[in-house]
Amino acid sequence: MGTVGHDYTIPYECGSENDYDGRLGVRISAIFVIGFGSLCGALLPIMAARSKRMRVPPLAFFITKYFGSGVIIATAFIHLLAPASDALTSPCLTGPITNYDWAEGIALMTVFLMFFIELMAARFDVFGEQAHDVEAYDPAMDLIRQSEKYDADTTVQTASSQPPESSEQSSQNADTLQADDSPRESKNGFPMTPLPNSHSHNHHNSVPDIEAGEDPSKVITSNSIPGREDDFSYPPGGEDHLGHQREHIDDDHFAAQMTAIFILEFGVIFHSVFIGLTLAVAGENFNVLYIVLSFHQTFEGLGLGSRLATAEWPRSKRWMPWVLGSAYGVTTPIAIAIGLGVQTSFAPGSQKTMIVNGVFDSISAGILIYTGLVELMAHEFMFNPEMRKSSIKMMMFAFLCMCLGAGLMALLGKWA
Hints:
The protein is mostly helical. The protein has a domain at 24-134 and 255-412. 59% of the residues lie in helices and 2% in strands. The chain is built from 12 helices and 4 strands; from the N terminus they run αααβαααββααβαααα. The protein has a two-stranded antiparallel sheet. Strands 2-3 form a two-stranded antiparallel sheet. The protein is globular.
């Protein structure tokens, strides 16, 4: 007896055949049911964010987004790292692989590799040519902005408290703003409007008059949210994350963002392949796994889909989220079909299968751990200007949604 498989425990003897027990019709139905759930989970957030006809309430998208974040984080630890450790420490294995906890070691190396890849992508401006023509759709951010503790009254009070400018000062300021607003060319030859710190947002900052006694930290923006230009708790690039809408973003952080998206996609697809293979040859526990994995794949699709929907894609790549979401949706059904085709030769209890399964689970775990902790937790909560300015109720609601997603996914780990 032992543990093998991507997400679940099945009985086997070392080196034995699989537990396939027929019921081909039910197994074939899993191809369509799980495929439908996966596609709905991955594509509905994209459709909800972009379609004007659906009119999905921002609250629904908000819950889905942070619920999905929790799902991805729990998947990394409960559904990937734990089974990988079981597979690579199985008593059926022999040789050097038994002398070290390779599951945790491989996951650790993967985390550093993912960081290195993202670092190099940002450093060498991999996606730089497309960084100045992006679109972002995030209804969840609209809901957060409505709860921001800085409202229009704050801006009015700040502006009214300033002493009136002389006509000479007004003329000088007007000339300065006119000079600053003059277009310049970006790398791709299109005009670009410069802003302070060379960071163009969809809100233009007004210039504080320090001589007149204005606090330089309270930079008034067009959306009535004071800027935090002097807040050194923002790390370089702290405003560049998956949920922040802008017309233009820095090349290096755009590259890092795109890299993070593809890393996440790679991790969940790896995960889905082994789910399909092992479900196809499951034995007496097939019915339980069928039900649980249907929810599993749908929830994981929501996590991926919400990230794809809120990422800032170049206008020329607007089709990319649909392709990536569809790729996730069809991966598990294809893997189930392959598993059914090779069910006479596929042996989950063999040393080779357990090693391959454990290694790839460890790699996927490292990918999702990095993505979950860095992109979905740190960037969304700590370095997201909109979230930092939101009310404590809104922040705690987002946190509870994430905990709910992680909790439900962890509960599914009892059966799958």
